[in-house]
Each structure stands twice: as C-alpha cells, then as structure tokens.
C-alpha cells in the first residue's frame, strides 16, 4: 500500500509533465499553422496586387495613348477592367477567408462576394471568346470588317458579354437562402441543372468556340503568309490579328527579299511566331480554368468532394488567368510596349 501510495504521489508530476509537453506541442503547431497562413496570404496578396497593377497599366495605356484608341482595343480595355475588378473585389476577400479559415463577414457579404466572383470571372472568360471572334473576323474578312469595326460595335459586344455573365451567375440569388451565422462561404451545388448550365455557359461552350476560332485564325494566317502577290492584304490582315512582333510592315519586308528561299524562311518564321502566340493564349486559358470547372462539374454530380485546400488552389489557379491576360494580349504589340514605356517615364518624372 505504501508503495502504491508512493507511486501515486509521484504520478501527478508525470501527468503534469505530459500535459505540459502536449500543450507545448499544440502551441508549436498553432504557431506553425498561423505562420503558414500568413505566408500564403502574403503570396496571394502579391498576386492580387500584381493583377491590379498589370490591368491598371493596360487601362491607363489605352486611355492616355491616342494610337491605342481603336475598336479592337476597346475589347482589350474592357477585359482589363474586368480582371481589375477581380483583383479589387474578389481576390482580397478570398485571401481573408483563406487566412482566417472561417467566414466572419456575414451572410449578405457572402452572397454579394460569391455573385461578384462568378460574374467577373465569367465575364473575363467571355471576353476572351469575344476577342477571339473579333480577331477571326478581322483576319478572314479584313476589308469588309474594317468598315464594321466601329466603337459602337465594340460597345455592343462588351454589353452583350456583361449581360450574358449576369444571366449565368445571378440565378442562385433567387433560391439560395443561408440561415443563421455563416462560417463557410462557398458555391453550393444543390441544383444539378443550374450547375450544368453555369459551367457550360461560363466555360465549356466558350472554350470550344475559342479553340475553333483560333484554329481557323491560325489556318487563315498561315495561308496569308504564303501568299506572295498580296503583301498589302497580308499586312492589313495581320495587323488586325496583332501577331506582328515589330512595327515594320511585314509585306514590305517580304518585298525586299529577292530569294524565294529567304521569303520562305521569313514566312515560316512568322508562322512559328503566330503558332507560339496562339499556343500561349490557349494554353494559359485552359491550364488556369479547366481544372476548376472539371472540379465544379464533378462536385455537382457528387463524384468528387475535394478538400478545402484543393478547392482554394484550383480557384486561385483560375484567378491567375486575370494576371496573365494583360501580359498575353499586349506584350506582343509594339504600340502597347511604347505606351507602357511612356507611362514609366511619366512616373519617373512625377
């Protein structure tokens, strides 16, 4: 009995030590989690800031440079505005939600945020579809479409994109009812019909159209490059297509070459550049958005239930497309390059 009591008297310090060790481990784990969340929040904040700056630069370049105020660039400007709104209204709340690991802003803000998120991201994707359509008409019907390519037509196209985006993203507001405190603010997949309607309307149909249009654009550009006797038509069409990588007239460059072999080399080089640009545009779009919409469709069909970390990663992979868009749609255009240099010089002077 004394031995038992003696052992018992020594037990509490052992138990206290065990509890103390467990508490220290929990504290270390908590610090590690907080540190990880802060690191992720800083990284995502940098992406959001970069997205806002890049798209803001595109908007400023078009507004301040007379040479860029063309109907074709109105679509680019509208795309930049849409992606700027993603960086300004969507990304910051997503960062806060990820950093806090819970939603603390209430039901109303949750509904508004999800609606703005869906509308802006859908609008960004539909802009890419409209830009592809505009470039297809410009290169296949260069002379005829030049007369039709007016500011009024560009405004109508932009308006149609925004209306379609609202019609795709707004329906859940009429039946979605979140009661009580909302600690999780995510897109619900309780309506299979709407999930199919929204994913196909926001992505799968536009993606199919974009692939078809750019395939035909490349075919048309390739045939134009191979035409020796119509260099002026070649120049006009490719200027509309905006695959020129220098301010010089590609038709005049071909005329200066006497050797057929040299002309073939120039044409082949331009074909490769066109293919590379189209590949970058299509590749970035598909890599950024296809995984997210596959996940959304599989969740609606109850085939997949990804973890929050996977969902956040795929969502931000889509957001990154708003950062890539201004790089892809302006960096191959010499006029935009000169406008950006002008903006940097103005900033240095101020």
TrEMBL record:
Residue ranges of the TM segments: 38-63, 75-100, 112-133, 154-174, 194-218, 277-294, 314-332
Main location: membrane
Keywords linked to the UniProt accession: Cell membrane, Disulfide bond, G-protein coupled receptor, Glycoprotein, Membrane, Receptor, Transducer, Transmembrane, Transmembrane helix
Topology class, membrane: Multi-pass membrane protein
Gene Ontology CC entries for this record: plasma membrane
Pfam families assigned: 7tm_1
Domain G-protein coupled receptors family 1 profile, first and last residues per copy: 54-329
Subcellular location: Cell membrane
Coiled coil spans: none
Single biological process term from Gene Ontology: positive regulation of MAPK cascade
GO MF: alpha2-adrenergic receptor activity; G protein-coupled serotonin receptor activity
Family per similarity comment: Belongs to the G-protein coupled receptor 1 family.
Family matches, as PANTHER family: 5-HYDROXYTRYPTAMINE RECEPTOR 1A, ADRENERGIC RECEPTOR-RELATED G-PROTEIN COUPLED RECEPTOR
Protein name: 5-hydroxytryptamine receptor 1E
